[in-house]
């Protein structure tokens, strides 16, 4: 079902792209190459490139955004002031003589500088760094039995906007830090907007939203020096999570490979909370939302993540934009775990209102209900990705929140934060936030009011505006009408307390640990050892070791050894939960779409088969990148990366074609490895590329004289090294092995 839907959506996008492409005029002269001079002839502003054409954003009144005069921008051929007066010079201030002082009366200067001075808005207090994309969601109709929401019905297509993010870092921080990732989706449904504001981790640090400022203050940089940026490897974070042990489950996910995703395209998403849903018959159920990436869940290695922080801090953004531009559209299946809506709101002993607990998929399978395909990059980062405002209270008929104390606080926080971030209460009028349905909300005035409301009676009841707008459903037809789903409120006295079922902070953390493969466990040990090793306070390290002792003895003792501290005994009786294999990322094969394959070539070497390999890589939906000693072309093929600009971290696999590239004089080759053939002459940058690709467990293929490079890098005869007589044969085997993301056996060696 998912494959068919994906192909249908992609087919339609391809048709649209073909429509947009300029038809070639037979016999037309080749276009002039662009001039290096600044253009002087006036012309209409450049239209967005075809890949930048976002799905039409309709306004609140249902019009195409382009047709709405209030949002028109940048249409005039000539430069104007913001009030539309044409200008003939924006390069010189108005001065009293050429060498004289600037005059206060220069209103163009003042308008230009004043606007510039106010270009920035406050960044999000959390999730400040993000990347967005437009998409389309198609329902399978399989949710009908539990949820009547219109966008889940079979074949219904709903435009979406997704924003992925890190949590702790500022807007300019690196993408690949160890952190939770946000996965927020706005569905512009026919019944109004539905926002699913989730993360890539199914549990949260805290059980009650009142603790949110505490966990965020602990994770953010220290208030005195404002370091470290975008990371949890510091005292205040570990101080908090070791004292506030309900955070241990989320923290374990952060220390696992889930904390350093390979790409937003290979990341799961979770709604975290339990939601209450209702079907057309009025029956209710409890559900948890899941996003499953079509490309599988995959992560970076820690060394890759660190290298990328310097080499390409925009790695995840770039990856998302490039994949969409290349037509390798990221796709995610939406799934539901469904539980009976019982009075206790407990499933098999798991309290569904406790957001630090998840329900293993083996106990409640994730049932697919629709597919989202991301089909277009934003046209303008600020207008769309920065100004998009999500809110867990943006719910549609058939979906409601539960009494989970975390979501209850979120219901308040998301509107409140936009008031300072977007400067007033009218943020839902910003194009990216507008519903695609019509609105009639009787909300009036306020900062940044764009609507010119008519009528005299924005109140109810009224007679002066003919009683408009009317209450929906008054005629008994409740289709498309939102109502809170009736639920009995627990009786009791007002208390600041939580149920005893929230007290178990360790059993699911241990379950997660026991569900990991040996390689993943090793990564977790190293992550804890690194992060605690960056703390200064001995007591914090000791306290966290105590928490680890309550999770697993080996985990605790190995981290303790790394820190040079004794491993404490557990303070609780460890349980033996069933492992949940679905939590591990290792073992499955996934489609290759959008993977990056680096092909190292030598202009003087044997280029036989390189062009075929390039086309075959492309044909398999992957991205071939030719890497040569210089830019331009080699053998008639465009070079995308040079030895100076390529680095192993960008590639999912490396192919070595033709002869080894001799080191230029300026870069002395490394010493040949003992016993290696004539390898001393191989360019050291290529050797480094191969060494790193090997260390990061990527598949490496070589044919012909390319094999000399393997020898120079000392990576012969181990798993995931493919040699062959011809390029095609090598590529076939490389592709087979790439399906598993990495050569996992190599980690163990
Ligand atoms: Fe939150 C942003 C996800 C708990 C308060 N949150 C924000 C974003 C995501 C999440 C993905 C970025 C949205 C975007 O891209 O614009 N937050 C979560 C998840 C949580 C969670 C999955 C727990 C299950 N959040 C949470 C709590 C509170 C907040 C408990 C406050 C009581 N979150 C906010 C916020 C933000 C935000 C301060 C910052 C910017 C924004 O809302 O629009 O209001």
Offer a concise description of the structure.
With 749 residues, the protein is of the alpha+beta class.
Task: Describe the secondary structure blueprint for this structure.
Blueprint (H helix, E strand, L loop, with lengths): L1 H19 L86 H11 L12 E10 L17 E10 L14 E9 L2 E8 L12 H8 L15 H9 L4 H8 L13 E2 L4 E4 L5 E10 L8 H10 L3 H11 L5 E10 L5 E2 L2 E2 L15 E10 L4 H6 L12 E3 L3 H17 L85 H9 L2 H16 L4 H12 L3 H11 L32 E5 L9 H10 L3 E6 L4 E2 L2 E2 L2 E2 L10 E4 L27 H12 L3 E5 L3 H7 L7 E4 L2 H12 L5 H5 L1
Parallel strand pairs: 13-14, 13-18, 14-17, 18-19, 19-20
Antiparallel strand pairs: 1-2, 1-11, 2-3, 3-4, 5-7, 6-7, 6-12, 7-8, 8-11, 9-10, 15-16
The structure holds CIS-heme D hydroxychlorin gamma-spirolactone.
CIS-heme D hydroxychlorin gamma-spirolactone binds next to β2, β3, β4 and α9.
């Amino acid at each position: 079902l998912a494959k068919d839907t994906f192909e249908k959506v992609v087919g339609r996008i391809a048709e649209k792209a073909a429509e947009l492409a300029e038809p070639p005029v037979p016999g037309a002269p080749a276009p002039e190459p662009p001039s290096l001079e600044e253009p002087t002839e006036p012309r209409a502003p450049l239209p967005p490139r075809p890949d930048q054409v976002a799905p039409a954003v309709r306004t609140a009144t249902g019009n195409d955004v382009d047709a709405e005069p209030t949002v028109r921008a940048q249409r005039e051929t000539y430069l104007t002031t913001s009030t539309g007066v044409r200008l003939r010079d924006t390069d010189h201030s108005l001065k009293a003589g050429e060498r004289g002082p600037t005059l206060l009366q220069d209103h163009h200067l003042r308008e230009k500088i004043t606007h510039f001075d106010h270009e920035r808005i406050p960044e999000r207090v959390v999730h400040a760094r993000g990347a967005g994309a437009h998409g389309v969601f198609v329902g399978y109709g399989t949710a009908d039995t539990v949820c009547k929401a219109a966008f889940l019905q079979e074949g219904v297509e709903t435009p979406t906007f997704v924003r992925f993010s890190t949590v702790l870092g500022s807007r300019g921080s690196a993408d690949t830090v160890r952190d939770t990732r946000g996965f927020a989706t706005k569905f512009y449904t026919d019944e109004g907007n539905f926002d699913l504001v989730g993360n890539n981790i199914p549990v949260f640090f805290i059980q009650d939203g009142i603790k949110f400022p505490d966990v965020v203050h602990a994770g953010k940089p220290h208030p005195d020096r404002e370091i470290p940026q975008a990371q949890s490897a510091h005292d205040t974070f570990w101080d908090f999570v070791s004292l506030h042990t309900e955070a241990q489950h989320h923290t374990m996910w952060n220390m696992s490979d889930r904390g350093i995703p390979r790409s937003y395209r290979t990341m799961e998403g979770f709604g975290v909370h339990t939601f209450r849903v209702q079907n057309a018959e009025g029956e209710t159920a409890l559900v948890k939302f899941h996003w499953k990436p079509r490309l599988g869940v995959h992560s970076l290695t820690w060394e890759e993540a660190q290298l990328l922080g310097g080499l390409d801090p925009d790695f995840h953004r770039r990856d998302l934009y490039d994949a969409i531009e290349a037509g390798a559209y990221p796709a995610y299946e939406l799934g539901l775990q469904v539980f009976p809506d019982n009075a206790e709101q407990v499933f098999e002993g798991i309290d569904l209102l406790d957001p630090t607990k998840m329900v293993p998929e083996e106990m409640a399978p994730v049932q697919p209900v629709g597919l989202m395909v991301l089909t277009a990059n934003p046209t303008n980062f600020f207008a769309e990705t920065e100004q998009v405002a999500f809110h867990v209270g943006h719910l549609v008929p058939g979906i409601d929140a539960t009494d989970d104390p975390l979501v209850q606080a979120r219901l308040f926080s998301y509107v409140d934060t936009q008031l300072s971030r977007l400067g007033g209460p009218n943020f839902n009028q910003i194009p990216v936030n507008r519903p695609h349905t019509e609105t009639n909300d009787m909300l009036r005035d306020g900062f940044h009011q764009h609507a010119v409301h008519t009528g005299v009676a924005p109140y109810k009841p009224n007679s002066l505006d003919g009683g408009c707008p009317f209450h929906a459903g008054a005629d008994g037809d409740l289709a498309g009408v939102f109502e809170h789903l009736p639920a009995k409120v627990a009786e009791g006295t007002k208390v600041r307390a939580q149920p005893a079922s929230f007290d178990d902070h360790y059993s699911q953390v241990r379950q997660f640990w026991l569900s990991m493969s040996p390689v993943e466990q090793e990564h977790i040990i190293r992550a804890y050892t690194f992060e605690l090793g960056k703390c200064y306070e001995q007591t914090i390290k000791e306290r966290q070791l105590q928490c680890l002792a309550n999770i697993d003895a080996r985990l605790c003792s190995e981290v303790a050894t790394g820190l040079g501290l004794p491993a404490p005994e557990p303070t609780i009786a460890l349980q033996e939960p069933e492992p949940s294999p679905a939590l591990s990322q290792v073992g499955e094969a996934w489609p290759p779409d959008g993977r990056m394959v680096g092909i190292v070539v030598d202009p003087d070497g044997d280029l036989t088969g390189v062009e075929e390999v390039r086309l075959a890589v492309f044909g398999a939906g992957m991205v071939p990148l030719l890497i040569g000693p210089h830019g331009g072309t080699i053998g008639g093929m465009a070079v995308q990366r040079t030895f100076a600009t390529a680095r192993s971290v960008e590639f999912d696999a490396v192919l070595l074609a033709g002869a080894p590239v001799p080191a230029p004089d300026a870069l002395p080759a490394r010493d040949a490895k003992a016993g290696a053939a004539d390898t001393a002459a191989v360019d050291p940058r290529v050797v480094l590329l191969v060494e790193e690709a090997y260390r990061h467990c990527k598949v490496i293929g070589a044919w012909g004289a390319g094999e000399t490079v393997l020898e120079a890098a000392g990576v012969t005869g181990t798993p995931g090294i493919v040699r062959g007589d011809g390029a095609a044969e090598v590529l076939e085997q490389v592709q087979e092995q790439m399906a598993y993301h990495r050569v996992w056996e190599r980690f163990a060696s």
